[in-house]
Design brief:
Blueprint lengths: L1 E5 L9 E4 L9 E10 L2 H8 L9 E2 L3 E8 L10 E5 L14 E5 L3 E3 L6 H5 L2 H14 L7 E5 L4 H12 L3 E6 L5 H6 L4 E4 L5 H7 L4 E6 L3 H8 L2 E9 L14 H4 L5 E4 L9 H12 L7 E6 L3 H9 L6 E5 L1
Parallel strand pairs: 9-10, 9-12, 10-11, 12-13, 13-14, 15-16
Antiparallel strand pairs: 1-2, 1-4, 3-5, 3-7, 3-16, 5-6, 6-8
């Protein structure tokens, strides 16, 4: 099989297309013939060498969609459409940047759909992250206000749509004024140009502060985002678009406002129900949800796709189709 291999940490060009043996099926694991996969920011950090415990060379990729090639347990039949999400993919064992992957049965989700593979490839990890962040971590409710920091990311775009579908008011940010109209078209009620100091601008719109904040930029803007919540408001840090994992100085009794709440979402396949994935795919097929796919690459273009992701040009999900 062909696979995009990261032989050692480095720049995007370090990724190589290699011929590897198709993995041998084993009990408790399922061999999938991959049709498409989405690119994720965490894979950029893995390629750079920042993901703890990852051994190289490694076939990266924390998600994929495709068809079952072989399931020793007989739970799934050959040709059945499935998604695989996280659970060590692309980190502890070889993942989705290939024509085939062998994954634990626990992280496999069956579905039915006539959507194109490129569209399906954008869904699994993006939906799992957004659903978990909004429903499990932030516990959003109709009538609340949600502030999305990092709104033009694929996670930010989908979070806006799902929040609007639940009756929330959404304020979203972008650093690029040219992208503001794109956020409005996606459903945002208000758009703020992020210059690092957003709190004062947000308070002009909602003086008392917002109910919930989905922080996708990360450490670089976390302190400012904490200033944006009302008493008993919640900030959930889900993303690290800013590229930094560790905060040098953080004073809880000062940086977290009184009665404010700070949490994180680091979801996995266990946070996603099989029925909810099918419901989301059906919503996309029915036109209720619009997938913001920025660009589709081929397997031999994974290095190029990583360069594009690292350039921060994308206004949505980057997908690779086999």
């Amino acid at each position: 099989m062909k696979a995009a291999v990261t032989p050692q940490p480095g720049m995007p060009g370090v990724i190589q297309i290699q011929d590897l043996p198709i993995p041998a099926a084993k009990e408790g694991w399922i061999l999938i013939k991959i049709k498409a996969f989405g690119l994720n920011r965490s894979e950029l950090f893995t390629r750079q060498g920042h993901s703890p415990g990852v051994m190289f060379p490694r076939v990266q990729g924390i998600e994929c969609v495709g068809e079952v090639e072989h399931d020793p347990s007989g739970t799934y039949h050959k040709g059945q459409k499935v998604a695989a999400i996280m659970g060590g993919m692309g980190r502890e064992f070889d993942g989705g940047y290939a024509e085939y992957t062998l994954v634990p049965q626990a992280i496999v989700f069956p579905f039915e759909s006539d959507l194109p593979w490129a569209a399906l490839g954008a869904i699994p990890e993006m939906f799992q992250t957004v659903s978990g962040s909004l429903n499990e971590a932030l516990e959003i409710k109709t009538g609340e206000t949600l502030f999305i920091r990092g709104g033009t990311s694929s996670i930010g775009m989908l979070a806006c749509q799902l929040a609007k579908s639940k009756g929330l008011t959404v304020i979203s940010t972008t650093r690029d004024e040219a992208k503001a109209a794109h956020l409005k078209e996606n459903g945002a009620d208000h758009v703020i140009i992020d210059d690092g100091d957003v709190n004062s601008k947000l308070r002009q719109i909602i003086p008392q502060g917002v109910d919930k904040v989905l922080e996708l930029v990360g450490i670089a803007s976390l302190k400012d985002s904490l200033k944006c919540i009302r008493p008993k408001g919640i900030v959930c840090m889900t993303g690290i678009l800013g590229g930094s994992w560790t905060m040098n100085e953080f004073t809880p009794m000062g940086d977290i406002p009184s009665l404010g709440r700070l949490t994180v979402y680091m979801g996995d396949a266990a946070n996603l129900h099989k029925d909810s994935l099918q419901e989301f795919i059906d919503a996309v097929a029915g036109g209720k949800i619009k997938l913001n796919i920025d660009k589709v690459f081929k397997l031999n273009q994974v290095a190029e796709a990583h360069s594009y992701m690292e350039s921060n040009q994308a206004k949505g999900k980057i997908v690779v189709e086999i």
